[in-house]
Amino acid sequence: MRRRMAGALCVLGLLALIGGYAGALHPLGDSLSVLRLPAAVALLVFGLIALGLRARVLGGLAAGAAMLSLGGMTRTVLPTDGLTHRPTDTALILYTKNLSFRLTDPGPVLGDIAATGASLLTLQELSATNGGAMDRLGPVWMARHRCVFTAGLDVGVAARWPVAPGGTRCAHGMAAVHLQGPDGPFWLVSLHLHWPWPYRQPEQLSRLLPALAALAATGDPLVIGGDFNAMPWSSAVDAVARASATRRLGPAHRSFEIAGMYVLPIDHVLAAGQGRVTRRPLFGSDHAGLLARVDLTADAE
What we know:
Blueprint: H1 2-19, H2 28-33, H3 36-52, H4 56-74, E1 92-98, H5 107-116, E2 120-126, E3 143-150, E4 153-159, E5 163-170, E6 174-181, E7 184-192, H6 201-216, E8 222-227, H7 235-244, E9 247-248, E10 256-258, E11 262-264, E12 267-271, E13 274-279, E14 290-295
Parallel strand pairs: 1-2, 7-8
Antiparallel strand pairs: 1-14, 2-4, 3-4, 5-6, 6-7, 8-12, 9-12, 10-11, 13-14
Helix pairs in contact: 1-3, 1-4, 3-4, 6-7
């Protein structure tokens, strides 16, 4: 009886884990991928129990699949190599932050932006209560652009570099500005995706990906920061990376807390080059900020 129970748990665990890899087939897969880590840990436990009860085939399959999944996820916590060490005044240092529409005092965030020496800024959930944050940046921020997203939750970008020909663009949760950087022109992009299926992320991506591909088609590299509402291993993040000719920079950081129990890595930085990401405090938001040092001259591996 106990062997059958352990076998049944292994089968259910395998189905749940495999479903989380099916985001490319159906958006439900990306929703299930949110639970990939606890599902893999639970499946490993089930597999070991089954092996202890001599259910060798199912136990071995479950434990093996769990270990492969856990091994794949460990790559998301590794930093990206290949960075150059440029002077601060020529470095591309990106600060990305979902401010939270409830935030009433963006002062601590603005102080942290100044303290980190950031030269690029991507913001999400600019609202009636915190939307003045961009106006308080100061004159050193030569480029600023804000786009309407949904229900008063806007997206915005700002930079210490001048705007290059091509100007600014808005599209479906995206704010983009063409900048003249120290090594040539590039696009700075702020993204805010809806939550995965059954919410509106699949529909949004169907309209957003062509807009990102159009930016990449200009031949200038992209630097993207934002709240993806998607895990680093999701098909949504992969789709954005493919469309924009970028890759997600590591390591992934737990950035959004659900009900005080489960913290999700759903805020990301993508770029056409190399970079390394560190985590910044909440400062009154429900999202941690991310700080990335980006080198667009380094080839992505």
